[in-house]
Sequence to fold (194 residues):
Amino acid sequence: MSVVMPMPLGRPKPPHWTGEAFDRATAAGVFDAHRVELIEGQLLEMPAMNEPHALAVQMGTYLLMKTFPPDRFTVRVQLPMALGESRPLPDFVILNGPPAQNFRNPATAMLVIEVSDTTLDYDQVDKGELYAMHGLPEYWIVNLGARCLEVRRKPQGVGHAGARYDQITIHAEGETAAPLGAADCKIAVGGLLG
Fold:
C-alpha cells in the first residue's frame, strides 16, 4: 500500500532578520562588500550610487554642516538608524544636540533626508511609510529628477503598517525650506540638489 503525502501549501519565504541579528552581522563584516539596508526584517541591497546622487550628497554635506552648527545639532551622513526591526541608511539625519550626545544609531530624529533619483518610488512609498510608522516628524526627499525638494510632515498611523505623512509640500530649486525643529535654519533647495 502506498501513502500519498499532501503537498504543503505556501511558498518559501526569505528569512526575517531582527535588528539585533543585523547589527551583529554588520559588526562582523558580513555586508562589507554590499550596500544593504534592513527594512522591516527584510534585507535589501541598494543600487550603486551614481554620480548625480554622489554630488548631491557631497554638496548637501557641506550645506547641512554650515546650516546646523555642531554646538546645537548633529549631522549624520549615510549612517544607520535603529527603527525597530529596520536599519535604514538615510543620506542625512539631523539630530538635536551636539555629536558628543549622539554617538549611537538613533531611533528618532528631528529631520531625515533622502537624496533620490533611481529609487524615487521606494523613497516616496516604502521609506515614507517606514519613517511615518516610527513617528519621525519630518522627512525630506531631494528629488533629483524633478529638481525639487519634497517635504513630508505630520506622520499619521504611527506604530502601524500603512503609516503615511499627512502633509506633503514641494519646494522648487530657487526656494528655501526650514525644518519644523529649527525654523531659523533655512536651507537653499538648490544647494541640496548638487
